[in-house]
Input
Amino acid sequence: MKHLTKMLGVSAVALCAGLGVAQAQDNITIAMQLEPPHLDPTSAAAQAIDSVVYTNIFEGLTRFMGDGSVVPGLAESWEISDDGLTYTFKLHDGVTFHDGSAMDAEDVKFSLDRARAEDSTNAQKALFSAIASVDVVDPLTVKLTLSEPNGNLLFNLAWGDAVIVAPESIENIKTNPVGTGAYTFTNWVQGDRIDLTRNDAYWGDAPALASATFKFISDPTAAFAAMMAEDVDVFAGFPAPENLPQFEADPRFQVLVGSTEGETILSTNNKMPPFDNVKVREALAHAIDRQAIIDGAMFGYGTPIGTHFAPHNPAYVDLTGQSAYDPEMAKALLAEAGFPDGFATTLHLPPPSYARRGGEIIAAQLAAVGIRAEITNVEWAQWLETVFRGKNYGLTIVSHTEPMDIGIYARPDYYFQYDNPDFQALMTKLNATTDPAMRTEMMGQAQQIIADDYVNGYLFQLAALTVAKAGIEGLWANAPTAANDLTGISWSK
Output
């Protein structure tokens, strides 16, 4: 009897231990459709980089939260001079990089000077254009002096392009990223996964998860199968929206439908004939049936847009009526522009489902008015080289997921090559304005200008679609920036 009691005791302990393991699950596998080309958020436009490293590996002076608010990051506080030209940041004490070296004001100066340098490869170099100098006051204090007031500075510094890096580890940052975040880079199996491990020396609050794996599954059918088989815990940016009702009906899963900052556009090379003719671009806009694209490619998930601005932003102006679907008007405009029989062009489609699926629909819509778009499917690295950097394209489809990024239209050398001095002057004025009412008015004017110039074909605001196991808490429903922020995620007990 004593032996039996002892055995029962061992079994009970083992059972409790088993329950404890189940309750204290501390790892997670998050699937994404796109694999990053590399892991340096300060030298590429690929959102997949930030989706892995933002807040997890790298941090900036400020950061975005899931609700879109900007809060302190590596800077614990700051003071702004009365004239708006000097920002003095006080850094958190005791912050170290993953290699054990201290993070201080010299690293902040190095990072921001590198981002704004003449030879900078930062995809959002313009974010730092107002910074005249970065000065180290002491190891925990850094002063930014601006050439003109910039009401967006704290917002701009929250972008992934503005994270703080160290000169000692910059050489290998693309394959071995060393940051200050709550997770350290562990391993990258190209074409398969990236592994992160909790940083036990993290300066901030310790996250609940001990490790995380980012798994890359590009095919929508495979994405559905992996999630249904519970091979992955979360699929961020789920690429098969037609399957969401099945997950919603299954108690094993939760489905989060939110908004992103992703203006999905038929991007147009404004310097390439015949797209250098505004009538041709206007014809293009009227040839597109937005709702058919949203229904056909996204199964109804997405909000129509008529300009490059997020509908959930209070300053949004609904200009969809200005480019309403009207194929007969499109044909008339093409005839006016000297193309009564239409013309041929190229349509480069990167991997996301919104582009590949949407591209087939758009090509058919354009063909109906005489625009023959030859589809070329490209991987992200090829898109970045050919379209984004090379500007060797006619049309492409891409979702611009950067937050409130209408300012890109003030860059004549940006890949769609729109050059409007009036718009550029308006953006300069907006950046120097801090009054909320005036900023809202100017943002409305900016939306109207690019709508009037039909710079791009404005399609829809990309929805944030996430499928996850039912027991996971702390996931972002909305995507105010490209991120899978691990620091607030846990398994319910």
Q: What stands out?
A: The chain has two domains: 26-252+470-493, 262-462. The CA atoms of residues 182 and 199 lie 5 Å apart.
